[in-house]
Amino acid sequence: MVNKLSSYTIVIDTREQTPWEFLPEKKPGKYGIDGAIVAKIDAGDYTIQGLENILRIERKAGFSELFNNLSSKSERERLDRSFERMQDVKYKYMIIESSINSDVFTLSVPQFKNYGFTVKALMKYLLEIQMKYGVQIIFAGDAPAAKSIAKMIFEKVARECLQ
Questions:
Q1: Got the DSSP string for 101-154?
Q2: Against a cut of 0.85, is the pTM above it?
Q3: In sequence order, what are the residues at sequence separation of 6 or more whose Cβ sits closer than 8 angstroms to the Cβ of residue 109?
């Protein structure tokens, strides 16, 4: 028998330092978010309770967090291991709270130099993640847009898998 649900719960990883807030959004007769819980997720920052093996969202708070994650070999390896653990997850995303355009590729911003690599090198790494692990990379623009995109993903996956 198919499990018919009218709502779902977001799971936020315990290591997420400044998590998106998900308040209950279920209205009578509508499908929506029941709320959120904080629990350990073995890879990624967000998922749906009961669908942890189907959906994972890795959130990056802009270029600064990406550069920080890639600033050393050990940090890159840690990120790679996280994506390896997601290998069998059907829906996996990295949502980046930043925008990308042609101007970004020519930047020589001091903080980029501090990390020892260029935006081009970062983009190459993101393409490798996409190709090797099947992670969908989304440049969302800013935090509110990123959260909105995540909510759309949650709803689509929840509707597909829970109804």
A1: -GGGGG---HHHHHTTS-HHHHHHHHHHHHHHH-PEEEE-SSHHHHHHHHHHHH
A2: yes
A3: none
DSSP string, 20-79: PP------TT--EEEEEEEE--SSSSEEETT-TTTEEEEEE-SHHHHHHHTSSHHHHHHH
Separation CA 140–CA 78 (nearest Å): 24
Provide the residue count of the chain.
Answer: 163
Q: Mutual orientation of helices 73-85 and 119-133 as an angle, nearest 10°? A: 30
Mind listing the domains of the chain with CATH numbers? 7-162 (3.40.50.10130)
> pLDDT tens, 96-138?
998 877 666 665 555 556 656 677 778 888 999 999 999 999 9
Least confident of 5-9, 16-20, 43-47, 57-61: 5-9
